[in-house]
Queue: 4 jobs
Job 1
Amino acid sequence: MQHGQDLEGAQELPLHVDPGSGKEFMDTTGERSPSTLTGKVNQLELILRQLQTDLRKEKQDKAVLQAEVQHLRQDNMRLQEESQTATAQLRKFTEWFFNTIDKKS
């Protein structure tokens, strides 16, 4: 959220290059304003740092999520194997049970 606020602030400092010198800048009132340029650069540096921080956090979050996905895949495979084993055991028990009842009848 912070970098969004910084972006809004950056829009408040529009600059125009003075075509005569190429080095001096004028603000929207037409006055030359090197301090405005410095302020704009400082704002952009702050935005850049915030974006870099956000990117680092996103990469960390991505790594955590990827590890969680891998863990869930392993759990899924284990549960599928357990389900197949339980199904086979239930099938054998059912056959035994009905065979036992048939023999008693």
Job 2
Amino acid sequence: MGFLLSKSLDANMKKQQEFMLHNTRLQMERQILMQNQMRERQMAMQMAWSREFLKYYGAFFTVATVGLTAGAIRRKKPFLTAPLIPLGFVLTYQMDSAYGTLIHRMRGEAENILTSECDRLEMPHGIPTFESIEKARRAKSSLASFLEK
């Protein structure tokens, strides 16, 4: 009688362990995918910010180049007003950032990056898997036990 009860409990415990392992693995895979999607979205936002900044910097550089060239040709003192040009662009950028549609444009660019340039957001060696994480954990665990000896 005790043998049958023990065998039944062992089978139930094994099923429970398999179920827990399956749920843990599923949860881990979901967390990995969620973190990867968050990383991709953050990278897309950073890329969008860089592109937007480049547009403003390009306009600043063009105007500054034209102004400096004209001042150099005339050899007068128009350089005294030259600081107004970059300051004007900085003010324009800050106003657009604070009150304009900059964030909407950045979000739109980020969404565009996510849909049309998603290959640029991939991680080296692909998305980490449960097996790769377990392999690294076991290697670290065996290394720690080896160092303790």
Job 3
Amino acid sequence: MTVLAPAWSPTTYLLLLLLLSSGLSGTQDCSFQHSPISSDFAVKIRELSDYLLQDYPVTVASNLQDEELCGALWRLVLAQRWMERLKTVAGSKMQGLLERVNTEIHFVTKCAFQPPPSCLRFVQTNISRLLQETSEQLVALKPWITRQNFSRCLELQCQPDSSTLPPPWSPRPLEATAPTAPQPPLLLLLLLPVGLLLLAAAWCLHWQRTRRRTPRPGEQVPPVPSPQDLLLVEH
């Protein structure tokens, strides 16, 4: 019996390779149908904290973007990497405690997070602070872990650099850019109506005098007597 193999085109092989590579690199749909956070995670973290040296130095990100849910997830991603690193230098007892805590936050590896950006800055702190923050992030995420899709959180984001931020807005420069008419003095405003009234009165008086001196059409103006006439009248 001869079995014929399906004649797949190169395009079909390419699509299969893309599907396999995406499955191996993690899903872009970062969501959880069932809560991966147990009810006793705080007990596991406290047991590890009690066993560890409280001042053991670790680092935490200092300039992650302030995101209510993404920020908690990002900090768990960084904390999970510290758990893996600490397991390589811990003893058998310590490895067991680390693995119990790591199990609580290992769910972040189910999502295809991008590598931390180069703008991310780290500061040194102690392990007790890291574990305390890890517990706080789990508390913040637990009510939302099955309700939200965290696909938009797959890229860790830094806070904007203060040197690139625009200067704070102030209403004073904005008001200064608009030209404003000079305000007249209050005394000038009070004297202006009086001056207009005086000007109108003077014009009326001048008009009346001019009207008296100007003869009407057809009216004869008596001649002005000369000084000789005045002398004849007196004699």
Job 4
Amino acid sequence: MSDLANLTQTMEDAFKKVFTNYMNSWHMNETKAEKVLSDRLAAENFNNVVWYLMVMIGMFSFIIVAILVSTVKSKRREHSDDPYHRYIEEDWTAKLKNQILIMENPMAN
């Protein structure tokens, strides 16, 4: 078992060395313009961009949540005194009662 662990460690070290050499050689192949650009980008502070994105996403989320909450509240407070609403409710309950009575007494029809 120790040989397998040793082989795994040896393979990991070899892959790390190959990857590190590749990445270092990749940076060495940069032109001067690319190096100036990468140095400039590294020097810039992107904290303001992050804050801006966080504020925009937060405002958007707040608006969406407010719309959803208001919609749910309005659906919950449906106008139960509305005559049309009462008609539908009474119509459905009457039909349901009729169907139950028909199912209980199939011979009466």
